[in-house]
Q: What sequence folds into this?
């Protein structure tokens, strides 16, 4: 039996179908979850996909964080359910206080879409065990509000606890503090990042690399071995 | 307009002498008289509103219709065409049971007045055209033209337009995979913001804009109706800008991409459950257009209660409700027993949906307001029987002089160093420079099917994950060529788009166009327009690629000065397996570079003549459509059989522009040799059509040459992929770093 991984569709989610594809390509079973439905349908893990939920007209993620499905996600994440937030999903996770800090508008004030180089700095989380420490990968990045910020105390704490999961390399595309691209929670079951691993899972498509696939094989390995 | 008492049909019949503001609404006197003649009485205010927007140039094509007919009359036999001109967008069979719909439209005037919203709603409008056909939108492209790159107003318009396209398209989740950005002083007061979209569906899912079946309900869903864009179609799009008139800002619509995203999802879900009989999006002319077109394309009439339209502003008059161009609205015709389910789906997506009327037995479109009948018309007279003008046209007096001013006689570089400097100047000029700063503001990854995106020759999208079936689209247009000779210019636009599609390995199938011209009331402009259409229709016939639809944008002029005639042509192609696609970037050192086609001394309208001499004169490059077809066949075969690893079409900027782009994208240089019979200057800068440069692995050299030889395509070995410089042997060498700085620094330097 393979793992069932839920992908939540909020109004304005854009990469939900892409994420389902990535889960499928990794060998797991994707399960569509709906924002108005509190029931997670017995999934083993949840991905909050990218997009512009509620248009990002308020602060990005600020409305989705209060959707019915998030009540259950928050509760179960605290109990150890693996959760990955990609881009808008990362923003929702910070709004939900499952991850510290928050996202501001890019420092250059433009939307940016590029193939971004990252360094993997945490290989113990539920979503990163298939990477090697210090591995450099290319993952597409596309956002308007991607500037990660937190107070100095939080940043120091994240660094000290090895919870900076990904850092931008060579070029900081949005002004994120300490080049932070993604982080994990203390337990390592919740991971959020701005770049889009689901867009780097097939050699022909998008960036033309498969550097994002280990996110999905990591979680599969973790769930199947558990 | 008089609203006390309500201007009902009855009231209008009883008060024949009431003066109506037909001129303010953009109608000409004879047009107004024609309305009176059709109705047998004066129109009500609401009827006048409908006729005035639907008979505007933008909606009725009254100046262009007589010429556009050629696209139908000369349409080539094509098995691929499923739905042709006249619907929201054309539909093409791409095999394996899939159909693709695509279209290009203009949003030029609004984008000059309010760049962000103008461009954003342009994307919104074209995408609704695609969903109205029953298709899921899968990609957008944006051919853009601005005034001089260094003009202060371009700094206002371009960043706003780019942010608007990104802001809207990115939020919809549509990858932006192609388009162009061109600068020319002629577009200073009239930027061209064209927007194209592609959608995919199964053959059986094609939907049409028609209201049939008496008793079926008419459902308006999406955004509430507000006061934005009132008269946009008639006042904004159909009149020349003039400094003396007041600001037109209030006539530009404001977009809400989040609402549109919900509209897409809920429409597709309703299609999936087969709940929709007919559908129409609300764009230009809003409800006037949707109700009259649905009714006139169907078998019956329609009755609408305007009081039921959800409003954002409760003070709107019925005339304003009919004219409003509030975005993100659609109109569906649904059988009575399916209405509940339709409304349920709308509710699931938090989309407001309201039954506003029903299809009737008769043949009249009747609209009610506060219990009174304010519209009673034959919908055909509104939607289809608008005025048709045979506008006078005449070859402009200056055309001969322009063509006599031969660009081939301009001074050419005399030393190797001068040649090198001109290469650098060319690749760093705003038109030839990298547009990465612009395209990186568009999402091209979303949906996870993007195989190629700009700056590739065409954008390519996979449409079937299992088989690898894909479609490609390229848009091209060169206003400088068209100014020198509109007939040839239009054919060159088609040739280039056709070639661009084939260069990536896809087979060109069909055409959409966006015809941007000045005022049709100027006989010189009308001649350009007539010539361009004749050229395009002739070429489509010869290449076997039918025009499936498109858009005409006239009145692109400021005062007496029109833009260059700018037919923008989109070609759609199909590729059986996207794994066979050919990219622009050089892939491997040691591969051999071949130039396909003939190079002649052709510099009229060239990028070189513009960049080095600020010159426009002479004749554009010659068109040879049979050669284009042969070249395309060779490129497609070579891609399918793995004989080439990269290919780039040659167009503006000539060979050196193409080689520099391939080198920079691949991070690999090239050593070039001037072939026998050509001089270095012509080799580098000529813009002869029907050419491409390809990189051939050594193992394929014989096979590739044999194929070209057997089919009679001239092929010349011109060098090799090598090192980290672009070198023309015996002349000059430029490092990739130098070239990259020159090519990629210009646009951010101007706009960042």
A:
């Amino acid at each position: 039996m393979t793992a069932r991984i839920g992908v939540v569709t909020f109004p304005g989610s854009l990469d939900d179908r892409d994420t389902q594809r990535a889960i499928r390509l990794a060998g797991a079973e994707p399960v569509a979850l709906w924002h108005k439905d509190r029931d997670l349908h017995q999934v083993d893990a949840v991905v909050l996909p990218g997009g512009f939920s509620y248009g990002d007209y308020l602060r990005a993620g600020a409305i989705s964080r209060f959707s019915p499905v998030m009540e259950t996600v928050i509760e179960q994440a605290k109990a150890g359910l693996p959760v990955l937030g990609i881009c808008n999903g990362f923003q929702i996770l910070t709004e939900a206080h499952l991850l510290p800090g928050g996202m501001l508008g890019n420092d250059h004030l433009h939307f940016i879409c590029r193939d971004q180089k990252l360094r993997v700095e945490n290989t113990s989380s539920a979503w990163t065990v298939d990477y090697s420490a210090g591995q450099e990968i290319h993952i597409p990045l596309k956002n308007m509000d991607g500037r990660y910020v937190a107070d100095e105390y939080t940043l120091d704490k994240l660094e000290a606890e090895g919870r900076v999961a990904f850092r931008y390399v060579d070029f900081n595309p949005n002004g994120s503090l300490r080049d932070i691209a993604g982080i994990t929670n203390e337990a390592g079951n919740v991971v959020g990042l701005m770049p889009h691993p689901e867009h780097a899972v097939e050699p022909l498509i998008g960036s033309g690399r498969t550097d994002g696939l280990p996110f999905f094989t990591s979680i599969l390995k973790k769930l199947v071995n558990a | 307009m008089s609203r006390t008492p309500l201007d009902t049909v009855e009231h209008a019949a009883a008060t024949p002498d009431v003066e109506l503001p037909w001129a303010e609404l953009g109608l000409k006197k004879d047009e107004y008289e024609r309305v009176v003649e059709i109705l047998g009485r004066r129109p009500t205010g609401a009827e006048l509103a409908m006729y005035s927007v639907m008979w505007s140039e933008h909606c009725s094509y009254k100046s262009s219709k007589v010429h556009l007919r050629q696209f139908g009359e000369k349409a080539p036999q094509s098995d691929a065409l499923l739905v042709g001109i006249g619907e929201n967008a054309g539909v093409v069979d791409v095999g394996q049971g899939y159909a693709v719909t695509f279209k290009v439209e203009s949003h030029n005037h609004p984008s000059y007045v309010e760049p962000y919203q103008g461009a954003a709603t342009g994307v919104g409008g074209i995408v609704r055209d695609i969903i109205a056909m029953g298709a899921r939108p899968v990609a957008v492209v944006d051919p853009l033209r601005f005034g001089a790159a260094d003009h202060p107003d371009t700094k206002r318009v371009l960043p706003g337009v780019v942010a608007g396209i990104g802001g809207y398209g990115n939020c919809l989740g549509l990858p932006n995979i192609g388009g162009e950005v061109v600068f020319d002083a002629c577009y200073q007061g009239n930027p061209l913001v064209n927007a194209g979209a592609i959608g995919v569906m199964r053959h059986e899912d094609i939907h049409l804009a028609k209201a049939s079946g008496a008793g079926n309900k008419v459902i308006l869903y999406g955004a509430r109706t507000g006061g934005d864009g009132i008269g946009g179609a008639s006042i904004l799009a159909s009149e020349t800008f003039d400094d003396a008139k007041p600001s037109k800002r209030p006539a530009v619509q404001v977009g809400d991409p989040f609402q549109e995203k919900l509209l897409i999802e809920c429409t597709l879900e309703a299609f999936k459950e087969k709940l929709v009989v007919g559908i129409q999006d609300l764009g230009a002319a809003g409800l006037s257009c949707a109700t009259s077109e649905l009714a006139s394309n169907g078998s019956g009439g329609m009755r609408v209660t305007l009081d039921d339209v959800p409003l954002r502003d409760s003070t709107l008059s019925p005339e304003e409700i009919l004219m409003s161009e509030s975005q993100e609205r659609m109109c569906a015709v649904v059988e009575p027993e399916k209405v509940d389910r339709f409304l349920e789906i709308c509710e699931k997506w938090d989309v407001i949906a309201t039954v506003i009327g029903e299809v009737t037995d008769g043949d009249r479109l009747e609209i009610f307001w506060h219990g009174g009948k304010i519209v009673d018309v034959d919908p055909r007279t509104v939607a289809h029987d608008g005025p048709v003008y045979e506008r006078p046209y005449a070859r402009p007096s200056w055309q001969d002089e322009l063509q006599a001013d031969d660009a081939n006689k301009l001074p050419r570089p005399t030393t190797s160093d001068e040649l090198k400097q001109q290469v650098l100047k060319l690749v760093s000029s705003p038109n030839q420079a990298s547009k990465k700063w612009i395209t990186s503001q568009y999402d091209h990854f979303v949906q996870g099917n993007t195989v190629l995106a700009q700056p590739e020759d065409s954008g390519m999208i996979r449409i079937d994950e299992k088989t690898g079936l894909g479609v490609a689209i390229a848009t091209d247009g060169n206003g400088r060529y068209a100014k020198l000779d509109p007939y040839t210019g239009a054919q060159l636009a088609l040739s280039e788009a056709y070639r661009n599609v084939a260069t990536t390995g896809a087979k060109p199938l069909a055409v959409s166009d966006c015809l941007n011209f000045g005022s049709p009331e100027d006989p010189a402009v009308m001649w350009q327009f007539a010539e361009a259409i004749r050229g395009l229709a002739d070429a489509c016939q010869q290449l076997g690629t039918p025009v499936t639809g498109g858009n005409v944008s006239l009145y692109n002029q400021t005062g007496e000065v029109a833009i260059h005639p700018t037919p923008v042509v989109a070609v759609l192609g199909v590729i059986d397996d996207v794994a066979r696609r050919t990219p622009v970037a050089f892939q491997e050192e040691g591969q051999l570079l071949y130039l396909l086609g003939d190079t002649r001394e052709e510099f009229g309208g060239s990028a070189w003549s513009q960049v080095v001499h600020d010159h426009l004169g002479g004749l554009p490059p010659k068109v040879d459509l049979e050669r284009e077809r042969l070249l395309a066949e060779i490129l497609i075969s070579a891609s399918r059989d793995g004989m080439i690893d990269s290919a780039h079409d040659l167009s503006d900027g000539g060979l050196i522009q193409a080689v520099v782009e391939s080198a920079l994208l691949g991070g690999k240089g090239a050593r070039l040799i001037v072939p026998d019979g050509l001089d270095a200057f012509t080799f580098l800068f000529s813009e002869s059509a029907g050419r491409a440069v390809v990189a051939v692995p050594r193992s394929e050299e014989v096979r590739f040459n044999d194929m070209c030889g057997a089919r009679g395509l001239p092929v010349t070995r011109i060098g090799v992929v090598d090192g980290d410089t672009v070198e023309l042997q015996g002349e000059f060498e430029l490092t990739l770093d130098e070239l990259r700085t020159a090519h990629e620094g210009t646009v951010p330097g101007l706009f960042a």
